[in-house]
Every structure is written in structure tokens, then in C-alpha cells.
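Re: that chain you flagged

S.,

Sorry for the slow reply, it's been a week of failed gels. I finally had a moment to sit down with the sequence you sent. For the record, here it is as I used it:
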Amino acid sequence: MSTEQTKAIVLQFYQAFDDRTLEQAFALLAPHFVGHMAGMAEPLDLDQFKQFGLSFYEAFSNGRHTFDEVIVEGNRVVTCGTFTATHLGAFQGLPPTGKPITIAIMRIDRIEDGKIVEHWGQGDAQGLMQQLGIVFLPGPTLFSLILKQLLARLVKKPVRSLT
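Prediction finished late last night. Pasting the C-alpha cells below so you have them in one place:
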């Protein structure tokens, strides 16, 4: 398979997702597909990956992948860019906010026999959550250190480190 054909398969997959033609996108995935997603302990099989994609599809409308870089090396295609959309559906228990989002993404897709057989996906999950209004709080150890530092500033006394 040529470099251009390999690249075209991957770009067709993302374009079909953006065009909201999921059946067309999923048809480009091999039956023995494996998805490696950042933040997930175990790889996803084809059905799990479809479910993951569907949850994003239902939560975010007007989705667009914009790739600043597309690099093909053998049977692998690396795409790097952004995903923009509007949060109009429930997502991981969060009701729709109506907020637009833009997240940095990097993907590697491996092609065999004209199908995507393996996918590695990395997206800015923390940036996404911040754009949706989710605030992350420090854990107890860090929180106590922050509190001690704030109190020390009030009384102008140095704080001993936790380490």
C-alpha cells in the first residue's frame, strides 16, 4: 500500500467522524482493532472503542479535527493538531454546558490490508475538563502544604517542607 493510500485511510476515518457518519468511520476499523487511549489502564477492543467514540460523538457537536502535521512512516500515520467542538450532550456525568472546546490531540494509527488495526490516542483531558468548568483540587498532602504556606505568609514565618 502506498504512503498516500495509507494516509488517505486515516484522514477518511477522522473526516467521517467529523461528518457524523459513524458507520463510515467504523467501517475503516479492522475486526481485530486495538485502541490504546491515554489515561486508560487497558487497551480497548473494537466494540469498546466504538462505545468510547460514540460517547464523544453524542456529547460534542460540530466536531472538527484540524491536523497541523500528518506524518506517514511505513504503515503508521501520525496526526497532530486540535479537535474543536461544542459540548451539547452529557459527558462522563457532566450535563451539557453549551461551551465550545478546543483540545490538543496526537494520534498514531497503524494500517493493515486497508483498515486501521491499531490506534494510540492522546488528548488534553485536563484542558478539556477546565474548558467545561471542572476544577481539580489538590490532594490532602499538597493541600496541607498550601495551607501551611498561606498561614506562614500571614505570620511571616518560614514553613518546613514535607519532604
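What I noticed first: The first helix runs from residue 3 to 18.

Talk soon,
D.
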